[in-house]
Amino acid sequence: MPSLSWKSVLKHGHPIRRVPSLLVLCMWSASAHATDTWTSTATGVDYLHRIESGSVPQDIHVAKVDLTNPLVSIHASADLTTERGVNTRTFANNTGAIAAINGDWGSTSTPISLAMGDSTLWNPHFTDPSVGSQWGFFACDIFNRCEAGTRPVSDFSFLYPFLAPHRYFNAVGANGVVLIEDGTRGTGCFDTVRNPRSGICVDASRETLYLMAVDGRSSTASGMTCDEMRDLADDLGCYDAAMLDGGGSTTLVVDGAVMNSPSDGSLRSRPNHIGVILATSTDSECSLASGRWCDGTEISTCSGGRYLGTGDCAAFGATCEEDGDWAYCVHLSCPDGDGNGSECLSETEVRSCTDGWLSDGDCAYFGLACGEDSTGASCMDSRCASGPNSGFCIDETTAAQCASGTYAETSCVDDESCVVDGLDASCQSPEPVDSGDGGDGDGGGADGSEDEDHGGETGGSDGGDTDDASPEDSEEPVESTPSDSDKGGCSSVAKVAGPTAWMLAVALLLRRRSDREAIPERPRIP
Predict the structure, then answer these.
(1) 408-427: per-residue pLDDT in tens?
(2) Which end of the chain, N or C, is less surrounded by CB atoms within 10 Å?
(3) Domain boundaries, the chain
């Protein structure tokens, strides 16, 4: 294949790439009066230019990326002057991104919502309810598993998206609108007219990423509504798709060149961006192409074959812990030294570690108690007598279950009764009783003398003394009532529960530490 040659031409002041015809495939698309031109940019990176004519002309630009390539990594703007508050081309040049697109809406240097670059969270999930009940985002972990989603502005469990279960490594806010989430089209938009648009999406396999830029505000480019952007994402095969900042901000850069025609006639500086970096080989320091690992107390990070650095957890009195191809520093006060351990400190206080990050909270703030079981400790309803993940029978026909401290009841129906099995309780139907045949076969006489299976000599009518003839094999349902428990030193003291109480208690209530040892800051991981 011949090498790619470049020639700069001036289009609105931006260099535009001229591609050899041997690498271009032109075809008529399924859309009426639309032409698709695909260009191979690099291994696993392709560029689509789609032109639609007719009464609503469109000028569409898409970068398609193979996320299964171990030398590909996603990178969003870090909290650096070379990556935030600059235009998209500058971001791509400064980071070495082979493809990049503008990110979230906001001021010149501060986005309105989530911003993470290489695991460093520098702007939190949007929490202003005046704009809407939910705010979208697009995020990827270090293994290029990406998703678009929404979180209510009150979801405090999303304060630390770099921790389990998310473990996001790079993220941008979605300008308030998620186009498609888990294969389901979203609804609504912040406007109803056609404008230049930017979007980002992945297919259902999470193996292909698309960066989409739609030009507008000209006679040859109408721009799109939010629903038309959903149509475009659908057409590309996207399963999760998010809207990014649009209008004059819409900018797609591929291999150093601006591919679209920004409506301002010049490039805007935007608060953040997201792009794709393609390494030529794996750095020698990387024992994993992507992931984190421990070497004693030292923790190292590589992404897409790029070595990002090494830090020493011991500098903060911490240890290093691995979870598969991921690792984290573990705070010196984590219960039993477990980076994901938890324990009750008192009847209402809970201490928890998530990926080594220590949090203390007081369940009493929510009217809850602290409880422990084999899965750990959490805030729980006071009726969860045997722990936050347990069950018991209130009476013969009512089962109570506690899951992560949330209490619920189930009423048995028909001939069901409540049965306790270990720490679980449920409504169950009685097992059918085998009455035996006793018919024409050789199975013995009516006295049952040959039906005995205990090996001893038994007469027919005297067989009633054997164990297997006893009705005691069918246990009566176990009944229990809620009572205070000192399991793990935690008693039940509260009366109500909510499904998010545990997460809220940990996230919001970092209190009473002054009565215990001083807790150092979380180490910064490279």
Answers:
(1) 999 999 999 999 998 899 99
(2) N
(3) 10-278, 291-330, 340-428+477-511
